[in-house]
Amino acid sequence: MSLLDDVEKVLISEAEIQERIANLAAEMNALYSDADRPVLICILKGAFMFLADLTRHLTFRHELDFMEISSYGRGTTSTGAVRILLDLATDVQGRNVIIVEDIVDTGNTLTYILRNFAARKPASVRVATLLSKPSRRQIEVPVDFIGFEVPDEFVIGYGLDFAEQYRNLPFIGVLKPEVYQRS
Amino acid sequence: MDLRLPNSIERVLLDEATIQQRVQQMADIISTDYAGLRNEEFLLVGVLKGSFIFMADLARRLTVPHRVDFIALSSYEDSATVSGSVRLIMDTRTDVAGRHVLIVEDIVDTGYTLQYLYRIFGARQPASLRTAVLLSKPEQRKVEVPVDYLGFQIPDVWVVGYGLDFADRFRTLPYIAVLKPEVYS
Predict the structure, then answer these.
(1) Considering only CB atoms, which chain A residues are within 8 Å of B63?
(2) Whether A45 and B65 lie within 8 Å, measured CB to CB
(3) CB within 8 Å: B89 and A86
(4) ω before B49 within 30° of 0 (cis)?
(5) Is B183 part of the contact surface with chain A (CB cutoff 8 Å)?
(6) Residue A141 falls inside a structural domain
(7) pLDDT tens digit string along A136-174?
(8) B68 in reach of chain A (CB within 8 A)
(9) What domains does chain B contain, in order, with CATH numbers?
(10) CA angle A19–A135–A109, rounded 5-degree value
């Protein structure tokens, strides 16, 4: 398959991802009860695979909602401002919210999202991200559940794309530099 | 293994292993049918919220390059009394013209939603338009709609899990279960 030819190496294998997600879910199961009835907010498109695997392990009553965002222009801007293409169907005022992200790098986008959520007056907000790139952080942002800390490499797979490719790889890989340099 | 079989669940209709095996078979067939296409030529369109788990499992088993996109629909009525009035609340980000489009749905019952999707996507000049549906309830069908890749035919019972909900509950069960009638009646 040609997609694999563009992968320099597998950074996190499918088995490692699945094991870590089960552990993250166990942490959440210890923290939340049926009475909390949190709403998990999936940030599309990147987080859909993480959400699908994470939520199947949850034992407390919960609901799901989706938010699709798009950044202005190319990549992450310093303000982190994003356009909301699909807003929540749920009124989260007074609700316990868990934001589910694929990756936190500069922290700008997440900061923007958290500010947007704060205005909706939820009872609590926590953030779960599959990946974090601490070396890229430009702003302190609270993240409660982190799957893996990864080095500053071009990661793809398991929801993460490059130009809408590689999203469906079941592992996290590093893209060969010649692939993103030629575009 | 059903450590968390909730009280409202009558029985498991399709267990996790059965679903996973069937999704793998569907992915194999789809990968064969769409072999040779490039990433930008093949678009999977998932219908939120119900299809996100099916999409996640199907997409990662496909060996043919593709893009993934999502749409969100809203029905004017309560989902328990679908009448065919469907509204698109989020469209695809990708222009579907000239692409091979595969709509990914969790369930077809009356057929109204799928009919609506055929109508709106068919009008956009895709190179081809097909559907992959996990569950079908033929007894509920009100309009004839073609389903190209079907996971399971099921009886006319209220099912939850693997993306399907009852009042936003039970959506993320890893299996498909039958809801006790006293819960929804």
Answers:
(1) 1
(2) no
(3) yes
(4) yes
(5) no
(6) yes
(7) 999 999 999 999 999 999 999 999 999 999 999 999 999
(8) yes
(9) 15-154 (3.40.50.2020)
(10) 85
pLDDT band at A182 (very low <50, low <70, confident <90, very high): confident
Lowest mean pLDDT among A131-135, B56-60, B77-81: B77-81
For chain A, the domain total comes to 1
Classify residue B89 by its DSSP letter.
Answer: E
> Out of B95, B109, B156, B168, which one is annotated catalytic?
B109
Angle subtended by helix axes B16-33 and B52-59, to nearest 10: 60
pLDDT per position as a tens digit, A124-136 = 999 999 999 999 9
Note down the domain range covering A53. 14-153
Establish if A177 belongs to a structural domain. Answer: no
Please name the member of B62, B69, B171 whose beta carbon is closest to the beta carbon of A168: B62
The predicted-structure confidence for B129-141, as pLDDT tens digits, reads as follows 999 999 999 999 9
Distance CA A120, CA B130 (A): 39
Task: Establish if B65 touches chain A: CB-CB under 8 angstroms.
Answer: yes
Q: Is A36 a catalytic residue?
A: no
Q: Is 50 exceeded by the pLDDT of residue A68?
A: yes
**Least Cα separation, residue B143 to chain A (angstroms):** 28
For chain B, count helices (H), then strands (E): 4, 9
Cβ atoms A172, A157 nearer than 8 A: yes
* pTM (predicted TM-score): 0.93
Cα–Cα distances in angstroms (integers) from residue B93 to residues A9, A120, A134, B70, in the given order: 30, 26, 30, 8
Label residue B1 by pLDDT band (50, 70, 90).
very low
In a domain, A4, yes or no: no
Q: Is B127 helix (H, G, I), strand (E, B) or coil?
A: coil
Residue of B nearest to A61 (CA): B169
A127, part of any domain: yes
A/B interface, count of CB pairs below 8 Å: 83
- Shortest alpha-carbon distance between residue A182 and chain B (Å): 17
CATH number at residue A111: 3.40.50.2020
Residue percentage of chain A with pLDDT more than 70: 95
Look at residue A101 and tell me whether its pLDDT is greater than 50. yes
